[in-house]
Amino acid sequence: MTTAELAERRVLATIGIGRIVWGATTALAPRTVHQTLLAIEYPGPDQGIWIKAFGIRDILLGAAALHPDSTVRRATLRAGIVMDILDAGVVAAAARRGLPRRAATIGMLLAGGTAMFASAGPQIIRKLG
């Protein structure tokens, strides 16, 4: 395995595990995520289905990021970056419409941070390693 492949695999493993943990938390304990972490009312008009759906999406993306086939992992990396950028845009729009600052900050850190790590992580690891 080349240094570039190893760096990419490390980033994807980190993101994959993180997505699985976050996804399971949001899918299985949405009330805790909303009330404790984000400090917003739960359930909203959607009865909590959206946070659960995002949780399931992240579990599936996390599992795909750990897939043994490098083609699947790379496609997952690209898809995850696009979804995280879109998520950050949705959070920014929600913040303009009254999403509490704490929830918006956490949303932007999670979505934007993951997108940046997925984009730059392999190159950073190669340079450090």
UniProtKB/TrEMBL annotation:
TM ranges: 106-125
Keywords, alphabetical: Membrane, Transmembrane, Transmembrane helix
Domain of life: Bacteria
Keyword Transmembrane: yes
Protein name: DUF4267 domain-containing protein
Species name: Gordonia prachuapensis
